[in-house]
Amino acid sequence: MILLYLLVAVLGLAIGSFLNVVVWRVPRGESVVSPPSACPRCGHAIRPRDNVPVLSWLLLRARCRDCGEPISWRYPFVELATAVLFVLVLARFGLTLELAAFLLAAAVALALTLIDLDTRRLPDVLTLGVVPPLVLLLVAASAASGDWTALWRALAGGAALFTFYFVLLVIYPAGMGFGDVKFALSLGIALGYLGWGSLVVGAFAAFLLGGVLSIVLLATGKVTRKSGLPFGPWMAAGAAVGVAVGEQVATAYLGLLA
Fold this sequence. Notes:
There is one protein chain. By secondary structure, the chain is mainly α. The protein contains 10 helices and no strands. The protein starts with a helix and ends with a helix.
C-alpha cells in the first residue's frame, strides 16, 4: 500500500509539471505539447535533466542554467500540491475506477484555479473539455460496480449545478462569469456521483469559503467593494469539501433537524 501511495505521488509530481505548462499556455491559446518548454528570457530549451519535478528546481537553485533567470517558486509548489492532492484522492477512493475520474477532476480543478487567479478567466477547453472524459470514466466505474444510479445522479447533479449557477449569472451578472457556470457542470457531475449530500455541501461550501475570504480582505483593506475576486478557486475548494466530507456533513445536519 505504501508503494501505491508513492507511485501516485510521483504521478502527481509529473502531472503537476504538466499543469504548469497548461496554466501558462492555455490562456494564451498556445499548444501544450509544442514547442518544448524553454526559458522565457534566453529562449534555450529546458533540458530533460532540468525538467525533473521539484528536484531540478532545487539543484538549479531556482535559476535558469543558461542565463540565470530566476525560476518562480510556483513551479515546484504546483508539482508538490498536485502530488499531495493525488495522494488525498487515493486515500478517499482507493484503487478503484472512481480514482481515475477524480484524479482527472482534481488536476483540471487545480489548473483552473491557478488560471482564474492569474487571468480571471476559466477557458472552455478545460471547463467543457473535461466533461466527456470525466463522464466516460464514471460510466466505466458504474459498469464495474453495477451502480447505475450513481451515474444518473452524476448527470442530474451536473445539470442542477449548471442551472443553479446560470440562474445566479442572470440575476447578478456582476457577481460571476459564464466560465463559472461552465465549471459548475463538471463539478456537479463529480459531486453528484458521490451523492446529493456531497453536491449540496460542495456547492454551499464554495460560497461560504469565498464569503469568509471576501470579508477578511475587506476588513483588512486588501480589496474594496468594487474589486472583482475570482470565484473559480472557491468553487474548486468547495467541491473538495464536498468530496471529502459532504455525505457525512449532510447526514449530521439532517440528523440535527430530525
